[in-house]
Amino acid sequence: MTASSSLKSEVGIHLEGITKTFGEVVAVDDVDIVIREGEFFSLLGPSGCGKTTSLRMIAGFEVPDTGRVLLRDKDVSGDLPSKRNVNMVFQHYALFPHMNVEDNVMFGLRVSGVRKKERVTRVAEILEIVRLPGYQKRKPWQLSGGQQQRVALARALVNRPSALLLDEPLGALDVKLRREMQLELKAIQHELGTTFVYVTHDQEEALTMSDRIAVMNLGRVEQTGTPREIYEHPESSFVAGFIGSLNAMDLTVEQRPEGIGVMSVGEGRVMARVGASVHVGTAVRAAVRPERVALGPSSAPVHPDGSVVFGTVQEVIYLGAVSLFHLDIPGLGQLVSQRMSHEQESAFQTGDPVSASWEPAHTLVLEANPE
To answer: Residue 287 and residue 363: Cα distance in Å, rounded?
Structure first.
């Protein structure tokens, strides 16, 4: 089966109000997640946030204290892992070293009693999908890390599970290979149309591969949405700070014309779209992404409808395609601007006076506390 270009609406997996404790530690706290059939869904968060425990409850390795695990509308909360039509891939691939690739991939089919002719056919088909045709007779030690990872994927997928659960499977690979395998994984998932549930602490990994992401913190889901929604419209300070880089600013609203909060910073100002609860005198925590901050000469004309602050280039960090400009802004502190290295703005050097500007729509209001 090939995945369609649009996500299916059917529910594949539903974690319905699940809670899991270990002694006095609440690992997962009243989590409710709906994963659609055929989507690539990521559980993203720092170590100890509950993402792996949630995945293990889907697999059946852990049983929720309260709540239910539903697979295609069937309550499997009390079922053994062997009774659930899901497979799991771990960071350590656990390939059988004495078996060749074909026998490793075929192992589950043999245990399930699939006839030899069909086993051989299905192994050949799945090795074609994971880009390993002709590797049947190689042993694991004859393969690269990326190839071993694809063998582990093939072994998990050859039984045609309704969902594949992946617990940081790329963690053992180097950075370049990880990026290559991210694209490979997404391509494989798209071709098969199998539901993938992926656990990672790597924000870039989640943004690259996922159809949707649940950001977890301290056992709870902070926000669920598409990569663009999570990045551009974070619903909490934690999500905003965890996803991508952020310039945070603690300011006070001094004017509020037509739903726009205006906050002074030295000779400049920060402007943001604000809700009805924000009025003159409200203390806000605002933020802007570094890539939204444009640079210009400090003497450049100020646009009347945008944020602009003035300062000095403190440090320039060249990263190849992009450069990071660390600015010292009186009355604000440090502000970072990320620009493409080929842009004219990248000509600014340490010590240069500059203006930094961005649109009101790009100012994120993370918290608002009326005084």
So the answer is: 6
Q: What beta strand segments (E) does the chain contain?
A: 11-22, 25-36, 40-44, 66-71, 74-75, 86-89, 163-167, 195-200, 212-217, 220-225, 247-252, 260-265, 268-273, 283-288, 294-297, 307-318, 322-329, 333-340, 353-358, 364-369
Give backbone dihedrals phi and psi of 40, rounded to 5 degrees, phi first.
-95, 105
Supply the pLDDT for residue 341. 85
pTM of the model: 0.86
Write the pLDDT tens digit of every residue in 105-154.
999 888 888 898 999 999 999 999 888 998 999 999 999 888 888 898 89
Half-sphere exposure of 236 (CA within 13 A, CB side): 13
Q: Does the pLDDT at position 200 exceed 80?
A: yes
75 contacts: CB under 8 Å, gap ≥ 6: 68, 69
* pLDDT tier at 74, thresholds 50, 70, 90: very high
Query: Rounded to an integer, what distance in angstroms lies between the CA atom of residue 116 and that of residue 36?
Result: 34
CA distance 359 to 356: 11
Residues with Cβ within 8 Å of 304's Cβ and at least 6 positions away in sequence, in order, are none
**Per-residue model confidence (pLDDT) at position 370:** 62
Q: Which residues lie across from 317 on neighbouring strands? A: 324
